[in-house]
Amino acid sequence: MPPSDSRDEAPQFVLPLVVRIERAAPPARTDALETAARAVLVLLADERAAGDGEWAEAVRNWEDARIRKVVRRARGAEWRRAEALPGITVTGKAAQVRVFPPVPLDGWPKDLAKLQVSGTELDDPEPPVAAESAQPVLWLNPALEMSAGKTMAQAGHGAQLAWWALPAAERTAWRDTGFALCVRTADPADWARLTGSGLPLVRDAGFTEIAPGSCTVVADHPALRQGVSDG
């Protein structure tokens, strides 16, 4: 079982993400991962999620507990019903992900609760191009095998940790780019350096698929990279 701390005592909330997967035209895996990470950032930067915004209390409740994200899939009429609920749809190259304000762990809206968590297996038709050093990169642990849905949630965690670590000016600059980022699997020979670099590191709570405490993502934002090297 994951170790208990004060976050476990708080009411548990979850951030729902729904990826559109139509039978005839599923998105590429990397496109879906990057779009999910951007969706988390778009919600965090939305004025409705801050101050007295209509989503702010739900976001605060969520952040006070375990930062859970759950990815479900939808197609056709399921997707149209999901789009009718309050949230934000983010589009990548072809992928579409809708993010919703946090909900109680046992209080999902009916039209989202009915959606499947399984069946989010996606592939890349071609290997992703090398990441650009000037762009934020969410590095995935090369030793772990995770479903696309699980990996989307982990990429979202990494993006969120990077957002929290950035000063206001850098957050604004990132938002102005549309939250440009890459998600790539790290070279096995480079993973130890990345995890020891001081950059934000996601450690999974172990609720699904992988062991508690597993390091899943390193959030490598250029502004944070500079801060680490200066330190």
Automatic annotation (TrEMBL):
What does the record give as the reaction this protein catalyses?
A: an N-acyl-L-alpha-aminoacyl-tRNA + H2O = an N-acyl-L-amino acid + a tRNA + H(+)
EC number(s) stated in the UniProt entry for this protein: 3.1.1.29
Taxonomically, the superkingdom here is Bacteria
Q: Which GO terms describe its molecular function?
A: peptidyl-tRNA hydrolase activity
Enzyme class comes to hydrolase
- Stored Gene3D superfamilies: Bit1
* Keyword terms, alphabetized: Hydrolase
Write down the InterPro entries for this protein, in alphabetical order: Pep_tRNA_hydro_II_dom_sf (IPR023476), PTH2 (IPR002833)
Supply the name of the protein.
peptidyl-tRNA hydrolase
Task: Provide the taxonomic classification.
Answer: Bacteria, Bacillati, Actinomycetota, Actinomycetes, Kitasatosporales
